[in-house]
Amino acid sequence: MPSDTYAHLIDCRLCVNIDHVATVREARGTDEPDPVRAAVLAELGGADGITVHLREDRRHIQDRDVELLFATVRTFVNLELAAAEGVLELAEAWRPAQATLVPEKREEVTTEGGLDLSGDTDHVAEAIRRLQAVGTRVSLFIDPDPDAIDTAVELGAEAVELHTGEYANASDRDDADRELERLEAAAARGLDAGLHIHAGHGLTYENVQPVAAIDACEELNIGHSIVSRSVLVGLERAVAEMGRLVRGARV
After folding, report:
1. Given 8, 12, 72, 177, which residue has the most CB atoms within 10 angstroms?
2. Active-site residue 53, yes or no?
3. Model's pTM, two decimal places?
4. Is 154 known to be catalytic?
């Protein structure tokens, strides 16, 4: 990753999560659509990075996908993974520019909420140490809560990704405004503590701009909405449209 990646807060980076491309492939057990080819189109559309979640059950992204992405992506790969031995060993070998530690439950459809940092965090601390030892920047996917921010700092993470699911799923405008205030407060607290601030989960073309406008936020990770729109307009155009919204949020 370029040395100046985190050096400015002019705009958010847009990292495109291509997991859902692999989900379509795995639904038929075939070789298409190829998430690696999707990453090329996402970069052509203006993506600043490519995000993939290597789940323990390999329900979508496969090891082969990640290896090819590291060899072909021109921006950077943000590797999401659980703090679990099998995937940690692979990450140590691959040495991604950035890794995001996320919670993972076998029965969930997608990641539900941030890491629970209220109890025993030894496994998270060990995962951070191991990833940093191979030169990887580590982000923690957390809920926008003060205690979680403080614990992330204590654990030595370089960044946090704020879970935007509660904001995205708000039942009305007032609820959305309250959740946006939580995100803004958490982002400011994290930035003051020296963390780099990322955000993601459930963001769409309709709700992304208020989050992208948060001054402290450096990176958004968006997948489902972009891949869904790409079915209608193509992936390159879908990424470009989201990029214009993200980069226009602070104008």
Report:
1. 12
2. yes
3. 0.93
4. no
